[in-house]
Amino acid sequence: MKLNKYRLKKISKQFFILITFLSTSVLNKKLLRSEENINWQILKKEEFSNILNWEKFNDNYYPENYQIKKKEIKDENFIKYISDSKNNFFTEIDPHLPTNIFLKQGSYSSSIQWKSTFDPGLSGGIGQQNNSFIINYGINDNFLIKGYFSEADDLLYNKIKNRNHKTPYRWQSFAISLKNKLFKWDKTNISLVSTLEYWKLSSGSRESISIYNNKNILGKEKYQNLIGSFSLPISYQLTKDLSFYLVPGITFSPDKLGKDVKSQNSYGNNLYIGTGLLYEITNKSLIYSSLTYPLGPGDNYFNSNLQYEKTPIYTLGFNYQASPRVEVETKITNSYGSTPSTSLFTIPSGNQLLYYGGLRINHSEEDIDLKEFSRKEERLRFGGLSVNNAYLPRFEEKNITLELDNSGTFFTSYSYSISNILQMQLVNIGRYKGVENNSSKYTNIRNTYLSDGNSNYRIGGKINILSPLKGDSLWLSSKISVGRNDTNNQGYIFSELINTINISEDFSLSLNPKAVFSGVGNSTGLGIGANYYLNKKVQLIPELNVNFTNTSNNNYTFSVRYLITKDKAIDSYISNAAGFQDVGQIIKANDIKYGFKFNIFY
After folding, report:
1. 336 and 284, same structural domain?
2. Which of 46, 159, 421, 593 is least crowded, fewest Cβ atoms below 10 Å from its Cβ?
3. Which domain covers residue 217, as residue numbers?
4. Over the stretch 145-193, which tens digit does the pLDDT of each residue have?
5. Which run of H or E residues covers position 30?
6. Which residues neighbour 104 within 8 Å (Cβ) at sequence distance 6 or greater?
7. Across-strand partners of 97?
8. Quick one: 319 and 426 in the same domain?
């Protein structure tokens, strides 16, 4: 019987299936037999490293056609995602002017913020400050929770008329804020923000009359209030990099404090309308500005006559993302409060221009990746004494120092690297001894901060800007610290720009411009320090500090450093610097001192 074409095709197909099945069965039996003979072993990390040699390739490794494809990506959604994520932790222009930027679900960040007047007013020191701490947490991509703590404790900026005394005051706020996205369409976003706050106020003393007291009776008054706010941030994307904000809102606070008070002695409720512009200069930086008009019925400012009025609130600021994990921010503003319900208020008794510095840590972001140090480059790890170097310890490294000299000067510090480019000095405390003072009056830097037995408490941070580990030719870092002393409770700001150049594998040079800003005067100088790698265990460290404000305070330090282990070192030094803590670096002591400094990493 002849096979037609269709039947032949069917038989061929069945034959193919049969052959495939038999082949697979035979192969499976062989694999099972061979698996029984396999001897599985767990390799140690060292053995595994010897077998595989991993190397990191840069973009130049990839084929040319791959790079062309990478550059030719023009998908609008891709570009929009990159644009939206440039500064995705920038959740507010001011506390009363939130943005429509949300954190991804589970992401969180924390911020330390500092507001201060440019001049000290009645308080002296470096200015009147309002310091705050903020934490952000993304419940989901459209819901954000924020927590605030803020405190101001000073004298009124201006003296109240017809009173012959200075008046102290205190603000302390605890706030929780919820932000929920309501609407998103094309280039327009609308959110709702609500805040509840616990606000503690006090004013007056045994020698002064409270600003809340209308009866002119001496004594301190304390008040506790629940206040709050609502706002409706509306944003429109004018261009890819420029956003416009319109924010109507209302704050709730009392207009009268105390019993039997007939006239206004606090701010009251305030409707307001705020406008803002947010411009992304690059994917790492942005500038912003805002203008807010309080509409009443309450007020947001009172003068030296204790008269309450309305005044616009303005802000101009800059935000820079030093790494995905670290952002720094600075601005000028006349907003004194640091919570959503109080940032509409100016400084008590005035309407002054303030400067602001902020540091934000994006804890859920990956840190910037750097190359590894060579063994000789790690000689910089322990820093300098009176002249710092620009080296920063690695992420999560902790550092403890302890120093003591023959005069009795004693200091200790604890630092923690939040990032590969940011080290926070969380504790820096000690006392000065053996520094000659011309008088007991607190009229200059030496007498105010370095008096015999005067304890100083400081915190600060050091951020890296340029580094050979990022491909730069030199090291460049910046350090700033703040704090007060025990004798007269006065404070100062210390800042320096740290430049370190590796002249050779064994020798490096640091040039550090320094400045001290205080209510009793300012001082500037230049630190010059070197580090010579004598051998694996010993380094020689000569240092010189030149005081530009008063050359009689020029001083020197010479140290021999012995490396006990790669994480421990001891310095033996002679010096005529007042001390190694901040302002002590540019002040000369009365006598030459010798001492020891212990340095531990863990």
Report:
1. yes
2. 46
3. 91-362
4. 999 999 988 888 998 988 888 888 999 999 999 999 999 998 999 999 9
5. helix 5-36
6. 88, 138, 141, 364
7. 94
8. no
